[in-house]
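Ligand-bound model needed. alpha-D-galactopyranose.
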Amino acid sequence: MNRYRNGLRFALIVLLLLPVSCTSPSQSPEEAAVEEEPFGVLPSGEQVTAYTLRNDNGMEVRALNYGGIILSIRVPDAEGVFEDVTLGYDSLDTYLEESPYFGALIGRYGNRIANGQFTLNGTTYTLAKNNGPNHLHGGLKGFDKVIWNTEPFEDERGVGLVFTRTSPDGEEGYPGNLDVKVTYTLTDDNELIFDYEATTDKPTPVNLTQHTYFNLAGDDHPDILGHVLTLNADAFLPVDTTLIPTGEFRPVDGTPFDFRTPTPIGTRIDADDEQIRAGGGYDHCWVLNASGGDALTLAARLYSPESGRVMEVFTTEPGIQFYSGNFLGSTPTGRGGVNYGHRAGLALETQHFPNSPNEPNFPSTILEPGDTYRTRTVYKFSVQRNE
Ligand code: GLA
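Prediction:
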């Protein structure tokens, strides 16, 4: 009798929990679904939730309502073996302790603004200097360190999450209340789509991006030097010693920055080159050939010969920051006890150019009231055999 009553109680609890923990309770794990579970509590008392998106092929993306952080992306290799291809941590505490923007949603301005300052319509705005003399990735408490209203959804394109938030006037020194909406969609074509939207009530710079670190050989693989990269760019932006672009558009021809044909990252990463030295490897923005239009075009292709995994990056943005993980090597222990060494992962951050608010010759990053900021980037995963 007791057992019967316990059974009934269990069934009831499961029934009560299902609609909360899973948007499609009736679906099996092979079908597209979104699940959510607690991931910890911030010192402020705010609850952090982890969402797992799963598509029909079993590809899985986990993300947090905190910083829009992508915890993991699990995709198959050429043999069908699923592994995590991103760098990340097991616990919220480690993200709070020290994270080099692992998986994070970046704003209000991705990349650097020189001397943490810009002048707009005659007013000079001062931002935090959180990277030597410069402002980086939105400041001390950027979009990567706040809780977002997060709504799971399923539609004809796939399953996903909508993150919304108003960045208040003056946040981190930026002008205007900025309403931001970012959508992550996982499709059944193994694409992860990022749609960024924003409106403002005062002119403000906006440059949103995503800072997931990838290692397509698997997250426990020591480095990304064997990955083969293609970048659809004839020019890149050389930088000064603090990684601020000098303003020059330099042709990649004849330099270690020429990735117009597929090239292993390790081949020239330590070349005797002034720009390689400035970045400690690759940490530069490439000027995409398709710059300027609204069309989604192929910016980058990353291939891991070890695993056969491929990631293509399509974007509407004019630039892509390729960061080869040069500062990695001293972060806390990573997911599953892995220590991430120097260049254990890389980031391909689609964006407008760094320091645009101070560079009249770069495409403008100023959003005006009445206009809508809209960009899209797609990471598409597949496999390739025998190259
Ligand atoms: C960006 C920068 C790098 C580095 C990382 C975070 O990608 O370009 O220089 O600051 O973020 O560690």
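The mean pLDDT is 92.
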